[in-house]
From TrEMBL:
<dbReference type="InterPro" id="IPR051082">
    <property type="entry name" value="Pentapeptide-BTB/POZ_domain"/>
</dbReference>
<protein>
    <submittedName>
        <fullName>Pentapeptide repeat-containing protein</fullName>
    </submittedName>
</protein>
<dbReference type="InterPro" id="IPR001646">
    <property type="entry name" value="5peptide_repeat"/>
</dbReference>
<dbReference type="Pfam" id="PF00805">
    <property type="entry name" value="Pentapeptide"/>
</dbReference>
<feature type="region of interest" description="Disordered">
    <location>
        <begin position="122"/>
        <end position="150"/>
    </location>
</feature>
């Protein structure tokens, strides 16, 4: 397919429906090789919420475009340039994204069910060639410099003026990839925390260095899939054949032969470690451990590592979990009434239906090695946490980071949210009452 012309990139602003319709019409003609056609160039455009389902957008330029909550079901985006695109919460079911450049894209909670992502480039966003360009098959080689400039602009927007070492990781946190075809896809360094990959085809895919905490790979096809240096703590891999997968030095869940005695010993040693200010015992490392329905009332696991642990339906009333690492943990329906979670890391944790009544999620006071106050504090981190229908009545959430948290229908009656970060938090339902 030879392009007739290339439409100029629009300014980073909202396109009127008639403007978008014209761009799509000219692209359709370009696809068919008809007169007056022009490859769609929607780089940096604001198309949030637009309905682009069933469109043929092969080879389109959507670098850095805002497509959050867009409908792209069944859309053909094969070979498109989606570098740094914002597709959060978008419907991309059954779409064709074969050989698409998705480096650095924000794909959090997007639905890719049954989509074709074969040979897609989902590495971190950098200025090195990606997508079809790195294979030397870009049909628009003469526009290479213009493409690089657009990528540079999108990368600057992603970085927010800062320079990220290794680029901006592609964010697939909470994305639905059930049944998706990711054969030979490059997901090196991608963030897939709590992503749904059930039944996905990952044959010969590259997941080196990827973060898969809490991801569900049940029934996924993993022949030839590379997990070298991947974080698989708390990753569900039921009914997966790993005999031909390349695990390399992947971080796997630690096996526990005797759950009861192992857990008791870890808690006992941890409490000694806490009481002696690190002189005796040792810090509990229970990453990925199945603690569902466990009776942990009043336990002291402050500063313990519980990344990706399964604490669903657990009894944790009055527990002390100050500055504990519960990132990616499953705390669905857990009873945490009156617990102290000050300064705890609950980023991307699942707390749907949990009882957090009168819980302390405020900042933790930082002390020196001798136990004396330093005058500094550490805020609780609930970034991206799932708090749907959680009970947060009279909870203390002062200065808590609730960025991107889902608080739909959570009960926040009497909750203290003074100084809390609520950017992009989903607050549909009961409105929080600030004090």
């Amino acid at each position: 397919m030879s392009p007739v012309a290339t439409a100029p990139a629009p300014a980073p602003s909202y396109l009127r429906p008639d403007q978008l319709a014209e761009v799509l019409d000219r692209h359709a003609r370009w696809i068919k090789g008809q007169p007056g056609g022009a490859r769609a160039n929607l780089a940096l455009a604001d198309l949030e919420g637009a309905d682009l389902s069933q469109r043929d957008l092969r080879g389109a330029r959507l670098v850095g475009a805002k497509l959050a909550r867009c409908r792209l079901s069944g859309t053909n985006l094969a070979g498109a340039d989606l570098f740094g695109v914002d597709l959060r919460d978008a419907d991309i079911t059954r779409a064709n994204l074969m050989q698409t450049d998705l480096r650095g894209a924000r794909l959090r909670s997007a639905d890719f069910s049954n989509a074709n992502l074969r040979d897609a480039d989902l590495r971190a966003g950098t200025m090195e060639p990606g997508g079809t360009a790195r294979r030397g098959t870009d049909p628009d080689a003469q526009d290479a410099e213009a493409t690089r400039q657009t990528h540079r602009t999108a990368l600057a927007r992603l970085q927010g003026g800062a320079t990220a070492e290794g680029g901006i990781p592609t964010d697939l946190t909470g994305a639905v990839l059930a049944g998706a075809n990711l054969t030979e896809a490059d997901l090196c360094g991608a963030v897939l925390q709590n992503a749904d990959l059930t039944g996905a085809v990952l044959t010969d895919a590259n997941l080196s260095g990827a973060r898969l905490n809490g991801a569900n790979l049940t029934g996924a096809l993993l022949d030839g899939c590379t997990f070298d240096n991947a974080d698989l703590v708390g990753t569900r891999m039921v009914d997966c054949d790993l005999s031909r997968a390349k695990l390399g030095s992947a971080c796997l869940t630690r096996p526990i032969d005797s759950m009861g005695s192992e857990i008791q010993r870890a808690i006992f040693d941890h409490e000694r470690w806490i009481d002696s200010v690190g002189q005796r015992g040792e810090r509990a490392e229970l990453d990925g451990t199945d603690l569902s329905r466990a009776d942990l009332r009043g336990v002291n696991l402050s500063a313990a590592s519980l990344r990706g642990a399964n604490l669903s339906d657990a009894a944790l009333t009055g527990a002390r979990l100050m500055m504990a690492d519960l990132s990616g943990a499953n705390l669905e329906r857990a009873n945490l009434m009156g617990a102290d979670l000050s300064g705890a890391n609950l980023s991307f944790a699942r707390l749907a239906g949990a009882d957090l009544t009168r819980v302390n999620l405020g900042p933790a006071e930082i002390k020196d090695p001798s136990g004396r106050a330093t005058g500094r504090s550490w805020a609780a981190n609930l970034m991206g946490a799932d708090l749907r229908q959680a009970m947060l009545t009279d909870s203390r959430m002062v200065q808590a980071n609730l960025t991107d948290a889902d608080l739909e229908n959570a009960d926040l009656d009497g909750a203290d949210l003074a100084g809390a970060k609520l950017q992009r938090a989903h607050l549909k339902g009961k409105t929080p009452r600030r004090r």
